[in-house]
What we know:
Layout: H1 3-21, H2 25-31, E1 37-42, H3 49-53, E2 60-65, H4 75-87, E3 92-98, H5 102-108, H6 115-130, H7 132-136, H8 141-161, H9 164-173, E4 177-183, E5 190-196
Parallel strand pairs: 1-2, 1-3, 3-4
Antiparallel strand pairs: 4-5
Amino acid sequence: MKSYEKLLLENKAWAAEKTGDDPEFFNRLAKLQTPEFLWIGCSDSRVPANEITGTQPGEIFVHRNIANMVVNTDVNLLAVLDYAVNHLKVKHVIVCGHYGCGGIKASITNSDFKPVLNMWLRNIKDVYRLHRETLDQITDPEVKADMLVELNVQEQVFNLAKTSIIQKAWKSENRPHLHGWVYGLKDGIIKPVYEMNAGTHIDQLYEYSYEDGKS
Ligand code: CO
C-alpha cells in the first residue's frame, strides 16, 4: 500500500466511526459551520489544532502558516480573518505558537534560505529586533528561541489588533477577544502567554476612528 492510500483507508474508518457514534454528524455539519474560534497556528505537523484542543470538526476555523504569523500584506490571512470575524462571527481569535518552532529558530540564524523563505522569516527577525534588549541577554540558544516564540505570539496578537477588521468588530460588537498561546511539543500542554480583550486600546498611532462602529 502506498503511504497516501493509508490516509484514504483511515478516512473511511474515521467516517464510519463518526456516523456510528452520531448518525446525524455529517448531515448536521454539511448544512452549516458555527465555530466560536479562529485559530492561527504554525503549519508544523506536530501542532494539529483540533487534536490538541480536543475539539471536533465544526468547532474551530483554522489558518496555519510558518511560525503563526499575522502579516498585514498576507491576503490569505486577511481573507480568513475577515470571513471569521464578519461572517462566522467568532468570539475568540487564538494565535498559537509552539516551543521548538523551526521557523523561529531559522529566523535567528544568518543563513540565506533563498528569496521566498527569507521574505517570510524577515517578519520574525523584525520581532527579534523589537525585543533585542531582552533576547540578547539570553545565552542558551534554546531558551532564547523559546522566548522569541512567546514574544512573537504577543506581537502577532498586536498585529491582529492593528487591523481595521478587528478594530471595527471591537467597536460594534465588543468581540472577538484575542489570545496568544504557546504549545509545548515536549509535554503537549498549551500555555496562555498573552491576552487582549475586545476594546483594548493599543498605540494610538494604529487606532482608526469610527463612530458607533460605522466606517
Ligand atoms: Co513552528
